[in-house]
Design brief:
The protein is of the alpha/beta class and about 500 residues long. The chain is built from 16 helices and 21 strands. Helix 11 links the parallel strand 18 and strand 19. The longest helix is centred in the last third of the chain and has 26 residues. The chain is globular, with a radius of gyration of 24 Å.
């Protein structure tokens, strides 16, 4: 059986009494769903191509369209749900690995939604953020363990390289190639205006964006795409990417169709060739090897930039983080299994890794027990969806958070999970010039600024209600969290008490 015989997942509902045959839907759909039949004078739809991106619905001038989930089903079977049957048919027809985009959509527990935040009442009064100062500035990097003075009693400066953020948010790694030039321009400009940082991902840094260096984290991944001395020194920090939440244990893959001229030049690979990064770094097989790379990068950048090591949240993450902290890295970035991606094997995205909430709590606790928590800062990522998630992450031990999918949603993403196809109708995950221009960088910048400013205001309100006036006082303060509907083992790993205790 071939894929053509599977009933489409989505149906295009067109109201004939509203449709005026303007053909805007046909012009706007990069997937070729809509077409005009000159014989009947009507618009037609090939629903097998629809990814439910909402572009046609959003731009229809007479609201004649809507996309609905098909109610056609296979015979009900709890062991063989509709999605699994479709995937078997697809692989039987192609012989290929299933690819997916964005984060894990499976119904695993979302621990953010089972954690509640405490609030001040009588004995510990709340703080009004409109009338009293609230400190959201965050410094990422190694903390100075002891204060030293000279013979005159003056403090001796001994600050390690660090990042200063106006608010504990960073835009997570999304490479030029996986997302468009205009999307990168939006992220870079917004980071500069907000006083935070964005991450280049593993695709190098386009020459136009070197001006945003003080707000840029440059990434060194296993493929070393676009990595050279000028690139390393262009950013405010260097991130060694060992793994990411959507695909722990494997490398990256950017299809050749996305390696257009500018992407080719930036990544330093031939135009049109697949960019396949290996699963491991071929120079890292131990903590000692990681130590060597960390200090090689510090040497290359004159010991002026903090070094981040990014890893996926996996089952022994606490021990891994302990080793990273001892390797000389300044910051550890942990990416949970719900983290987004431009393309990943479906089975890996949906079944490998652990939630960021459990990983973060385990790492913070382990580093505290070993007395090395001050040696590194922690960035948490992997489906931070709101300011409340962010506050909970910091209370569990994070110094700051990475946001990726939320940032793309602010740019107009409709989470249709077809980024790997390169036909993003919103101009984000594509390199097609006609599609890229649909995302206006100035509009994108403003929407990202609005999102982060809104979250920062909410963070201040939440902290004020907790009676806390700084991010530093919130960090690792698990007494301000309570769990609901969690097992005793889950509560123990998270290090929080049950609601009512």
């Amino acid at each position: 059986m071939s894929i053509e015989y599977i009933y489409p997942e989505f149906e295009v509902i067109r109201h004939p009494e509203r449709c005026i045959g303007c053909r805007i839907c046909e012009q706007q759909c990069a997937n070729g769903v809509h077409s005009f039949d000159p014989k009947s004078g009507k618009m037609l739809a090939d629903e097998s191509k629809c990814v439910n991106c909402h572009r046609c619905v959003a731009l229809c001038p007479v609201r004649a369209l809507k996309i609905v989930k098909s109610d056609h089903t296979f015979r009900p079977n709890s062991n063989w749900p509709d999605s699994i049957i479709r995937q078997v048919y697809r692989q039987a027809g192609t012989g290929g690995v299933l690819l997916s985009s964005m984060g894990n959509p499976e119904p695993y527990p979302i621990y953010w939604d089972k954690l509640l935040i405490n609030a001040s009442q009588v004995t510990n009064p709340s703080i009004d953020p409109l009338r009293e100062p609230m400190e959201t500035r965050t410094f990422l990097g190694r903390k100075t363990p002891v204060i030293r003075r000279d013979s005159e009693g003056r403090l001796l400066p001994q600050k390690s390289p660090r990042l200063e953020l106006s608010t504990p948010i960073l835009f997570s790694a999304m490479s030029y190639g996986s997302i468009s030039y205009n999307a990168h321009a939006s992220l870079a400009a917004a980071a500069k205006e907000l006083g935070i940082c964005y991450n280049t991902g593993e695709g190098g840094l386009h020459k136009d964006f070197y001006v945003y260096g003080p707000n840029t984290i440059v990434q060194v991944a296993s493929g070393r795409f676009g990595v050279h001395k000028e690139y390393l020194n262009a950013g405010a920090a260097v991130e060694i990417k060992i793994g990411q939440g959507a695909k722990p244990g494997i490398g990256g893959h950017l299809p050749g169709a996305k390696i257009v001229e500018d992407v080719s030049r930036t990544r330093m690979i031939p135009e049109g060739s697949d960019a396949i990064s290996p699963a491991p770094h071929h120079d890292i097989y131990s903590i000692e090897d990681l130590h060597q790379l960390v200090f090689s990068l510090k040497e290359a950048t004159g010991y002026t930039k903090p070094i981040i090591v990014k890893v996926a949240a996996v089952h022994n993450i606490a021990a891994i983080a302990s080793g990273i902290a001892r390797s000389g890295a300044d910051i550890i970035a942990i990416d949970g299994f719900r983290g987004g991606t431009g393309a990943a094997p479906t089975r890996i995205r949906d079944t490998i890794g652990i939630p960021i909430e459990l990983a973060l709590a385990a790492v913070d606790q382990r580093l505290r027990e070993e007395g090395i928590r001050g040696d590194v800062s922690i960035i948490a990522g992997g489906s931070i969806r709101s300011s409340a998630d962010m506050v909970k992450a910091i209370a569990l031990g994070a110094d700051a958070v990475y946001i990726g999918t939320a940032a793309l949603l602010a740019l107009g993403c409709h989470l249709c999970r077809s980024c790997h196809a390169g036909r993003c109708n919103w101009g984000i995950a594509t390199q097609r010039p006609d599609l890229v221009k649909r995302l206006d960088p100035e509009t994108g910048r403003q929407r990202l600024v609005n999102l982060v400013q809104a979250w920062t205001l909410e963070i201040k309100e939440i902290m004020g209600g907790m009676g806390i006036n700084s991010i530093e006082a919130l960090r690792g303060n698990r007494l301000m969290l309570r769990g609901v509907g969690l097992t005793s083992r889950e509560l123990s790993i998270l290090g929080v008490k049950h609601a009512g205790e």
